[in-house]
Amino acid sequence: MLKFENGALGYVEGSWVMPDGHFLSSFLEISGTRGMLSVDNRSTATLSLFKPNGLREELTPLFNDGYYLEIKCFVDSIIRNEPPPVPGEEGLKSLEVVLAGLKSVFTGKPVKLPLEEEVF
User: Fold this and answer.
1) pLDDT digits (tens, 9 = 90+) for 21-68
2) Do 77 and 103 sit in the same domain of this protein?
3) What pLDDT was estimated at residue 44?
4) Are residues 86 and 96 in the same domain?
5) Domain membership flag for residue 17
6) Are 69 and 44 members of one domain?
7) I need a labelling partner for 114 at 20 to 30 A (CA). Which of 10, 22, 26, 101 fits?
8) What does the H/E/C string look like for the chain?
């Protein structure tokens, strides 16, 4: 569980424990007072918007697998000798969230970010 400065809550789950033959997948869902947004790579990058009045809107902004596009973009930045569109610092921030989660599991206490000490 994540608690943001503005009071919003987040939940992150990750696992590599899948049966043989299961492909890598991801799912993102954001819920708020004005509706819900849902993205699932198990389909063709469909973006679903759920609005409070019961309306649902389906968009397909990308027609290629997101993991393929991510790797292609990274390789293209190397070939062009340009910085990737998402800098490595963003990856470090994601890693920090994961390490904070692990520290919380081991200590049984909430952990504030940014981390001020090594986790292991």
Assistant:
1) 777 777 788 888 888 877 776 655 566 778 888 888 877 666 666 778
2) yes
3) 58
4) yes
5) no
6) no
7) 26
8) CEECCCCCEECCCCCCCCCCCCCCCCEEEEEECCEEEEEECCCCCEEEEECCCCCEEEECCCCCCHHHHHHHHHHHHHHCCCCCCCCHHHHHHHHHHHHHHHHHHHHCCCCCCCCCCCCC
